[in-house]
Structures
1.
Amino acid sequence: MTPAARIQTAIELLDAIAAAARDQGPAADTILARGFASRRYAGSKDRRAIRELVYDAIRLCGERPESGRAAMLALAQVRPDLCNAFDGSSYGPATIDPAEPVASAGIAPDWLAAQLTASGIDAAEQAALLARAPLDVRANRLKARREALAARFPDAEPLAFAPDALRFPPDTRIEDTVEFQTGQIEVQDAGSQLVSEAAGVEPGATVIDLCAGAGGKTLALGAAMANNGLLLACDIDRARLSRLPARADRAGLSCASPMLLDPGREAEQLDAFVGRADVVVIDAPCSGTGTWRRNPEARWRLTPTRLERLAATQRHLLAVGARLVRPGGTLLYVVCSLLDAEGADQIDAFLREHGGWAAVDPALPVGEARGQGVRLTPGAHSTDGFFVAKMQAP
């Protein structure tokens, strides 16, 4: 493909990504995969170049752009070498009209950037949210030890602050390795590994992962339990939860039991577990502001109304989870968000409304206190952004 054809393809994919962000459609990675599948003439170098153009434009534009062309023109303003490709050729973009709209550069929509600032995320930390993320994996203790894995992967860096973490360069094709295919390693950000460790689960425990999703933290919790105990993996998303059995089988995890819940009926369906769990983990649905390094278009999806709905869901899940914890047991609340509305403020409200509960130190090796929890950020701690709070039942 010519440089002009690559830019035109990037523009078309950006159009689809912006529309999906507006309508809560598929993620950018999904749209790119579908787009390349329908453009089989694009070779591997073409796909790599187009992907880089698309994500560079997404990271540059704080507001959702009016069009893919407006986003690419914004990128051309900071990369003048791209301007020559707007040549009007058969497979390239039309020549540039000085009067046509150009998307604005920025970290995030203005209202959202203000929320981050009010939550103590300064300009440098906000910029770090859009840096390119490394690839972190977790050594699965049920099958391997990090030291042995590190000897097999000379490009991997064992992280001092996360006992099972290995960090690879961003483009590593880890899914092609025998170690991944046999369940010795799982892809999991180092911050996610740390907050899973904060649960403090032990062999023989009864643990409920209330928002298990596809099971990333479930697998980490089960490994910490050494496959001994009851690990209930719950979620309302059938498609995501259906991925857990195959992942658990690959990882050698046998103590996890998936449980599909109906939205709004979670408390009723979990009635048999009231007051029985040693640990309840709530990895709550959230804005994902801490994961923009991996999903930069997510900031185009968020609105004040959607943020309010997420906060209401988080409050509901905290109330459901609290009923399940045995006396003296642990409730671990986690969001991959840096907004106080989803983190520190939620825990302050929970503790006001639930007498006798107490916040305890999650004892993370890195992180900064935020309210009655701890926050991890890409800029300060080289992880995805997380807020975690650990609370003990009366």
2.
Amino acid sequence: MHGPVVPGWLLVALCAATGSYCLLRMRSGSPTARSAAGGEAVMGFGMAAMAVPAAFLAPPPWILGAYAVVFGGAALRALWLARGAAHHLHHAVGSLAMVYMALAMVPAAGDAAHTGHTGHTAGGVPALTGALLLYFAAYVLSTGVRLLPVAAGGAPSGAVSWGARPELALACRLSMGIAMLAMLIAV
């Protein structure tokens, strides 16, 4: 990812921590919840890998194509699973946004002579970037609202394992939505 190094590393840490928690969530819950957590883990670790600052580690030329293939496969899987659970549509949009960002980071053919310039990126389609920014901003706001405290009358009694805590799953989705916004702004 192009941009400042410190925010890039913070984004890597956030996405990797989110991916790790999603792996923990895969150990509990229904098969549908485990499947969703697996998709979110792939997204979290993939976002962490894409967010590594280019100033620290210049990615090999083939890696952006590999990202596009991996996230394209994740999008197809999410679309297939969306037949049974609407939440997978969000996974498909997120995966397709990652494909878009990977392709937007590929330098144009004429840019080979300018690779030494700092801050020079290929960029994306402004209308598509804007649409994705609006989608993820709405997603972040709606997820954030669902995290607001409600009346204590509906609180579950008894201990709940760390992998089955719905508020932590929402917090992970919120953090990945915010990370997606940060990555789209950098496009």
3.
Amino acid sequence: MNLINDMARAARAALPALAAATTAQKSLAITAAAAAIRGRMAELLAANAADMAAAQASSVSAALQDRLALDAGRAAGIAAGLDAVAGLTDPVGEVIAQWAQPNGLQFSRVRVPLGVIGIIYESRPGVTADAAALCLMAGNACLLRGGSEAALSNAVLLDCVAFGLRSAGLPAAAVQMVPAGDRALVGQMLSAHGLIDVIIPRGGKGLIARVQQEARVPVLAHLDGINHVYVDASADPDQAVAIVMNSKLRRTAVCGAMETLLIDAAAPLALKQRLLAALLDGPCEVRGDAAVQAIDARVIPAVPQDFHTEYIAAIASAAEVAGVDDAIAHIQAHGSQHTECVVARDAAVAERFLGRVDAAIVLHNASTQFADGGEFGFGAEIGIATGRLHARGPVALPELTIFKTLVRGTGQVRP
């Protein structure tokens, strides 16, 4: 018996009903799920507290615990995120291009759902709600496989989503939860070619590496979030300090956190000292090259691997670079094509960085922690994609669709 194949077939059977669903019907399902979350807030927080206690007893890492933890504010944010998705423009059926040929054929390219989406994730209970809502609004069915550390929280959230589906008259098989704890089921998902149309992993490097190595199904993912902030000599000092601190320390466990600070060698010494002192007093351990060590004695020596490391902790690497081109070269050599930032008042420097850095998200004078679908105005996201096929950056509603081309003729035949 292959449980995943059975679940995927049920999900595929739900696709016609999702295709026929109106925007209002899909929005109703999502808002009803949000209302259910608010109505069951105490139950959700109690379930999460039990998940947290088990995680702490099992010595789950601090980063995973941060992603797992819910309080009233985060739980309310999950419900608000669903309401935001329900209010977004329905992408299904959107005409994204139209043209005609001299022979009179009329072409139109329209968005259609991807189909059945498998989502594999760790720790973050909010992904359960976000993924369900985004997949549903884009007309997709989904199989959700959350981590065992969030099993109780995810069960409550799935019940709320199921309530939303029932309220809108949509099939329950549109959103299903794969049992956690059995790693063999992940393997079944990765090999379900022809039944699952795309896999989206969201979690630690080990999980995503396994998915990318083993999948026989297309994958939308990022492996590392080795993100840089380059502070140019022209940067506003107050702005530079605020952006660096927020990029690194607002939440160290998110994939958009800064891991490496690059400082223009031509920047004023006072600015360099402020940047490093702010981080070190944060507190944040700084591992720097010789030039950075010379600025503040508290900086410890960096080794080459530090500049290839996603710390997901209050640790940052730092290096001096000889201007914007050297910063771009450093990012090309060490970055993961996720999120990169330049802090500069010089418009030419900023445009050079924005145009030449190869990453899914490139920012000017803004924190790397804006690498989030909600902050982009997408309502929510399932993850960040750094590949070069189909989607790049936050995976939200448009990225959960593909297109087909409609051709309208008046009897043309090809000579």
